[in-house]
């Protein structure tokens, strides 16, 4: 990994933001349904957005995407 | 995933209804569902003046937006409960929201009437802030609506709220509460305003999606006193059931409503007028006046103690 630009590395990851907290996913692509399962979030209590647009649960997000998870009740 | 109505790209899957919908069809679904709730439970009649309790959260702002779009003459009531910082931020959100819609807003500050906000009152009387807050808000809402001539008061309770309340009432077999829980609580006395919950058949996730798709900016902050509230645990339990068996929440609530008459034979408490303010209560003095009386008493006692120690 010598010579790898960390900024480029950042761009190639998936960034997930939940209630203001950011975390990076080392994945090339992932379905919203799988992402929520991985985060232990019940899909009945959350919605996913990319660039402000709602994403249904079978939608995939890919590296470089920023996905915001909104919870139905804040602070869980 | 395609929209069931128009085959465009779907933005949301509603597992309880076995459908996926695009933005436009989802927004139409929400309006249609609320209108059907209003019609089914005969909540409002066309042209009726409706007071909407607007806290600034997603549910109350969505309700206001939906009722306005459905053509009802709505006005907002915001009660500032005097919770440090939190209440001020909620009030700012409500003022912005209603100003953009050029809609009437009525403001009531609890601190101006009681001399203190909920946290101070709770601390002075050593009572849980949440129950105190709920009781005082209900009192102020009913009194305000009655005094200003509104025939109905609407709140933003959604299916998750109603389901959580129902589960709480069932787990402790609160028969009296079970007999009264409904999307419509009709007025049974001139001093009681009709209370309505037009969002009762919409899941909390659907209300959140509605706000996001409409671009409604709501107050997202959690009340600092609501952590650990039992209703949140009940919601989690119901959403877990919903996850494993889609449609559980709506079945739980709607089947209860269908069979509610089982509980209606239970005699309700006789109501009388409060000896202080004249509003209806099951006691000699209503809870609101009892709290204010104790508060004034404890303030007087405190000042007497200070006076005595100075003397």
Explained architecture:
The complex is a heterodimer of chains A (76) and B (311). With 76 residues, chain A is an alpha+beta fold. Chain A has a single domain (4-71), classed as Ubiquitin-like (UB roll), CATH 3.10.20. Chain A is 18% helix and 39% strand. Chain A contains 2 helices and 7 strands. Chain A has helices at 6-12, 32-38, and strands spanning 14-18, 21-25, 29-31, 46-50, 53-55, 60-62, 66-71. In chain A, a hairpin with a 2-residue loop joins β4 and β5 (53-55). The radius of gyration of chain A is 13 Å and the shape is globular. In chain A, 25% of the residues are buried. The model of chain A has no long low-confidence stretch (mean pLDDT 87). The longest helix of chain B has 24 residues, at 287-310. In chain B, 52% of the residues lie in helices and 12% in strands. Chain B has helices at residues 23-40, 58-69, 86-100, 110-114, 118-125, 129-147, 159-171, 175-180, 204-214, 230-244, 248-258, 261-264, 287-310, and strands spanning 12-14, 19-21, 49-53, 73-80, 105-109, 152-154, 184-185, 194-196, 272-273, 280-281. Chain B contains 13 helices and 10 strands. Chain B is of the alpha/beta class and 311 residues long. The model of chain B has no long low-confidence stretch (mean pLDDT 91). Chains A and B meet through β4 and β5 of A and α9 and α10 of B.
Helix content of chain B: 40-55%
What count of helical segments of chain B does DSSP give?
Answer: 13
Unreliable spans of chain B:
none
CATH class membership of chain A: Alpha Beta
Structural class of chain A: alpha+beta
Helix content of chain A: 10-25%
Task: Give, in order, the helices and strands of chain A.
Answer: HEEEHEEEE
**Tally of distinct domains of chain A:** 1
Computed over alpha carbons, the radius of gyration of chain A is 13 Å
Low-confidence stretches of chain A: none
């Amino acid at each position: 990994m010598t010579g790898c630009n960390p900024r480029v590395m950042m761009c190639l990851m998936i960034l997930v933001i939940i209630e203001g907290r950011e975390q990076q996913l080392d994945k090339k692509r992932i379905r919203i349904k799988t992402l929520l399962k991985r985060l232990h979030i019940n899909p009945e209590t959350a919605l996913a957005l990319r660039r402000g647009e709602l994403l249904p649960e079978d939608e995939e997000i890919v590296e470089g995407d920023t996905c915001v998870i909104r919870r139905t009740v804040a602070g869980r | 995933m395609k929209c069931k109505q128009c085959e465009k790209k779907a933005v949301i899957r509603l597992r309880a209804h076995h459908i996926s919908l695009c933005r436009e069809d989802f927004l139409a679904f929400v309006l249609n569902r609320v209108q059907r709730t209003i019609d089914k439970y005969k909540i409002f009649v066309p042209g009726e003046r409706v007071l909407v309790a607007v806290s600034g959260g997603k549910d109350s702002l969505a309700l206001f937006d939906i009722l306005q779009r459905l053509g009802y003459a709505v006005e907002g009531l915001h009660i500032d409960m005097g919770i440090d910082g939190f209440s001020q931020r909620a009030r700012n959100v409500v003022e912005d929201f209603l100003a953009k819609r050029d809609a009437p807003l009525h403001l009531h500050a609890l601190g101006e009437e009681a001399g203190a906000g909920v946290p101070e009152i709770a601390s002075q009387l050593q009572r849980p802030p949440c129950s105190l807050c709920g009781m005082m808000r209900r009192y102020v809402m009913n009194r305000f609506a009655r005094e200003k001539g509104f025939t109905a008061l609407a709140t933003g309770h959604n299916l998750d709220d109603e389901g959580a309340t129902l589960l709480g009432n069932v787990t402790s077999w609160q028969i009296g509460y079970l007999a009264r829980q409904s999307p419509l609580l009709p007025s049974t006395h001139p001093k009681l305003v009709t209370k309505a919950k037009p969002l009762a058949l919409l899941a909390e996730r659907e209300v959140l999606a509605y706000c996001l798709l409409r671009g409604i900016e709501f107050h997202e902050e959690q009340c600092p006193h609501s952590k650990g509230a039992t209703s949140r645990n009940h919601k989690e339990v119901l959403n877990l059931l919903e996850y494993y068996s889609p449609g559980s929440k709506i079945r739980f609530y709607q089947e209860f409503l269908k069979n509610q008459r089982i509980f209606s034979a239970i005699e309700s408490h006789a109501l009388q007028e409060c000896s202080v303010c004249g509003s209806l209560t099951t006691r000699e003095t209503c809870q609101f006046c009892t709290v204010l009386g104790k508060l004034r008493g404890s303030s007087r006692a405190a000042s007497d103690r200070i006076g005595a120690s100075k003397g």
